[in-house]
Amino acid sequence: MYQVKTVTEKEFDDFLALPERINSKQTLMQKPAEELALLKGEHTLSKYFTFTAFICYRDEKPVSRCAVTIYHDSGEAYLGFFESINNDAAAKAVMDAADSFAKQKGIKKLTGPVDASFWLSYRMKSNCFDEPRDFGEPYGLPYYPDLWKKNGYTIAETYVSTVYKKLSTKDNDDEKYLKRYNFLRKKGYRIVSAEKSQWDRQLHEVYHLLIDLYSDFPVFSFITEDDFCEMYKDLKSILDFSMVKLAYKNGRLLGFMISIPDYSNKLNGKIGLPQILSILKNRHFCKRFVILYVGVDRNHLGLGSALVQCEFKQLCKRGAVAIGALIKKGKVTERYLENIILYKKEYVLFEKTL
Questions:
Q1: Where are the domains of the chain?
Q2: For 183-202, how does the pLDDT look when each residue is reduced to its tens digit (9 = 90+)?
């Protein structure tokens, strides 16, 4: 017998504990403090939406969960924070409850997985489940895509992460990218590494360009500059600034490529001294980087190739591997440096008409 409850303070602990019960230590990507803030309505982004969580019990034991997020300004609604044992009935029970709730609120379509916001996490892994998790990678157990499909969801978008071969100083420059870089440099463009001492100012510059460029992305939601900077304030402590490239002309930021050391899931959960030491080691001696954020002003499209040239030159010096993360399938960025792509990982975004 399955019983679904709308999560109140009484069910907080059960909601937060379920992912750890279902996932292994290697696959667990949960951020409990973030989830608790959302449940309490105290997250930086809580002002933008209503957040309603559900948990399903069988014989008083939690077996599945999810949350519905409804945005105040647009009426967009998302299903996220999904976790379930590998059981069709358990998944169906909690997803049916979410459907019913959304319908009562006048929602015509649910999209997911979206963990409350574009700015937190969205999409679901759909292959390569035997590999370690990359930093920032959307998670999901191998049977999750089937559970969503069985409950009426269809694939709306597909994304890829391109895994590049390990590079070294023996690798030659790609002539096309080098030519583009030299051409733009002569035209007055300047590509530099970010600086820790200047990062607070540079983060504000990134915000303005990113908001413009990402506004047409699926499930994108606007947030203020202050909220953006609050959300990403901790980047300063985890970035290797030599791997953050910023492109300027006439003092204006026109492009960025932000790679982050692959911390896997080390930044999730509680962070004590052992985790801090591991993070510091990762940052300084990292041989695997995740290219997580890329953007180029639409009027300066050739600049993307120049940024790639600078970034991959730095990777050669480091003898490092790169992952071009979470690119919408078919975008030009999926084809950057095709000759050194080893393989691609895929992720999906689902939708369901209610």
A1: 2-159, 167-319
A2: 999 999 999 999 999 999 99
* Equal CATH topology for 2-159 and 167-319: yes
Residue pair 228/275 in contact (Cβ under 8 Å)? The answer is: no
Secondary structure string (H, E, C) spanning 321-346 = EEEEEEEECCCHHHHCCHHHEEEEEE
Cα distance between residue 218 and residue 211, in whole Å: 13
pLDDT tier, 132 (very low <50, low <70, confident <90, very high otherwise)? confident
Rounded mean pLDDT of 325-334? 91
- Name the DSSP class of 43: S
CATH number of 2-159: 3.40.630.30
Model confidence at 282, pLDDT cuts 50, 70, 90, reads low
Q: CA-CA distance, 296 to 328, in Å (whole number)?
A: 15
Q: What's the rounded mean pLDDT across residues 312-330?
A: 92
Extract the tokens encoding 98. Answer: 């979410």
For the segment(s) 167-319, the CATH number from 3.40.630, 3.30.470, 2.160.20, 1.10.12 is 3.40.630
